[in-house]
Fold this protein.
Amino acid sequence: MTDKVYDVIIIGGGPAGFTSSIYTAREKLDTLLLEKSMTGGIPNVTDLIENYPGFPEGIAGPELMQKFRRQAERFNVIIKEYDEAGAIIPGKEYHTVKTEKKGYLGKTVIIATGGLPRLLNVPGEEELTGRGVSYCATCDGPFYKDAEIVVVGGGDAAIQEALFLTKFASKVTVIHRRDQLRASPILQQRAFDHKQIDFIWDSVVTEISGENLVEAIKIKNVKSGKISTKITEGVFIFIGWTPNTDFVKDLVKLDEEGHIVTDRYMHTNVKGIFAVGDVRSKKFRQIAEAVGDGTVGALAVSEYIDGLA
């Protein structure tokens, strides 16, 4: 256990976490940022980001996150990589963040652990992520102008993204493991009525193939067992999102899907503990929105600490 007490401990080194750290450090708060692996988060696996303001030609995800990190370091944020938070133990004067290496003491904690899209876990998925395999239509849809692509999933997110992708792709094929969608009736009707969308029912993707880019997928009918091959340039996967909240599931209030519930100032139901970014219960998940969360959360932390004086 360290004896040092930080003003704020930020758990997570993605866009939201780094934004919070930049703001808290500029407020002259002693800031520690913990990241379980290497900093950067989801943008690290995005080849080109075109919808983040300030970069008219777009910017590679890893490059953008390096800029975030350099800015945080400029304001003397202490960054510790490969130090995963296993638990937060709340206290009256400060909270303890326990990791595999040690325990850290903080007057406040900002949880910015994000989440991960659920994977198909099939051959080729990992190798071709960012090269035809995507989990974000808003991020990558514009790269598929006039292409034929597939969307995997049948819930609201999958159908919303399929409808969005028709702005670019010439044809969108929705592949769903059941014989009916789980999306809301209005979204279903819009998809069924759309001339660019068709469906493959009772089927799962079992393999994604291609040399340097996605070229084809293998599909298995779950009822007949028949295997078929479909040529495609892109595979958009929307089968769910898993927030990284296991380590606080018994501490803070979560929604039905496991996201942290906060007020509009990012405060959780536990005094002095805040949450920002994709780990939070909300509808949209974009880098710009994570940055907004991080800003609000950091300013709320600063105000909270002022109130402790």
The mean pLDDT is 94. The CA atoms of residues 56 and 188 lie 35 Å apart.
